[in-house]
Amino acid sequence: MDKVILIKYGELTTKKQNRNFFVNTLYNNIKNKLKNYDVKIKKDISRMYIEFKDEELDDIKDVINHIFGIHMYHIATIVDTNIDTIKEKLLEMMKSEDFKTFKIETKRSDKSFPYRSTEINPMLGSYLLKNIENIKVDVHNPDILVNVEVREYHSYIYTKGYKGCGGYPTGVQNKAMLMLSGGIDSPVAGYLAMKRGIKLDAVYFEAIPHTSIEARNKVIELTKKLSKYTDSINLHIVNFTKIQEEIYKKANPNYCITIMRRMMYRIMEKLAIKNHALAIVNGESVGQVASQTLTSMNVINSVTNMPVIRPVACLDKLEIMEIARKINTYETSILPYEDCCTVFVPKHPVINPKLEDALKMEERIDYEQMINEAVENVYTIKVSDSIDEKFKNLL
Ligand code: ATP
Ligand code: MG
């Protein structure tokens, strides 16, 4: 094998004291995601190296493109750490490239190597100039940038780089519970939360028969798409029918959404505690709808002390849609199935609700028991990228 995938870490390099933990978490995540491939993975404090079989490279790249904590990766050629061998291999590589100008950048981490990087660059450069016609060095805007990393036993030569998805490795933070509706915003919120290293469980509130099995399948499909960025996601399905019907019987129509969302938050908090999660994540975006004005958020949020993370709070809808397309959830999100929020939407939801009014209306609803029942009867499925299609309809 004379090639490896050379992985450069993202932001984790700034976290000095946690570095080993970050690198080990990333290593385990990569190992787990590539468990069905014929690979060998090695790590050190600044790089990871994956030996692969050529025929699996495209699939492996697709997996790597979905692993947080990877900043860049390259397909690098390995040579023995010896200046003549490096020269010969580099020449062989560059002979098959189409270019007029080049630049060489060397990094020497093997301090016992007899040449400094400032000496290696001109040695390699002049060797290329001598052996390939009509090329020259351009240090500002070269057609090809050649990287040479000189390490203790092996050195690595590479040109092209691929951008990884950045962020922190999933799992370096604790767990949070994502409120996942079938809309565009919440899958994006989940993706952004995972990008910070958060491990996610997802929660979907449904109100069958007012909402359909198709709506639920859509959420399972979205969870599946999100799970491509992690190993698997537990999706908790909450039966919200009884609570929702009670709210619509007892509360003023314009307060129904406010109270419904307060009930959701109450359930979220209980589910978080039950599942050892430390925060709630959702797709609320400031000003997007009546329940997402700052006044509404205050009244709704006041039922819990748990941190509520809103990754898309300050993004425009167009910006959210752009991310949804990038992470491949958009097409599923726009399928036209009713969500429990949309089924009961009143004509004039209150934009500036008052906490006292919400509390007064809630006094008419005996919600404690219903909430506990909903939490107890939650239906959980472990969703991974390979979840069987048939599984959806069996629920
Ligand atoms: P999205 O915001 O995901 O596009 P939406 O616009 O239908 O869907 P909103 O009414 O804006 O949802 O609700 C704001 C947030 O509340 C959602 O992003 C989601 O996090 C959460 N939420 C709404 N409905 C549900 C539901 N049925 N199950 C779980 N979470 C929900
Ligand atoms: Mg929304």
Structure characterization notes:
This protein is of the alpha/beta class. The protein is built from 15 helices and 15 strands. The chain has helices spanning 19-33, 57-64, 83-95, 117-131, 185-195, 213-227, 241-250, 256-274, 294-301, 317-326, 330-333, 340-343, 355-363, 367-376, 389-394, and strands at 3-9, 40-43, 47-51, 70-80, 101-108, 136-137, 144-150, 154-158, 162-163, 175-179, 199-206, 232-239, 277-281, 308-309, 379-384. The strands form two sheets. Strands 1, 2, 3, 4, 5, 6, 7, 8 and 9 form a nine-stranded mixed sheet that branches. Strands 14-13-10-11-12-15 form a six-stranded mixed sheet, with helices on both faces. It binds adenosine-5'-triphosphate (ATP) and magnesium ion. Adenosine-5'-triphosphate (ATP) is lined by residues 179-181, 183-186, 203-205, 282-284, 288-289, 339-341.
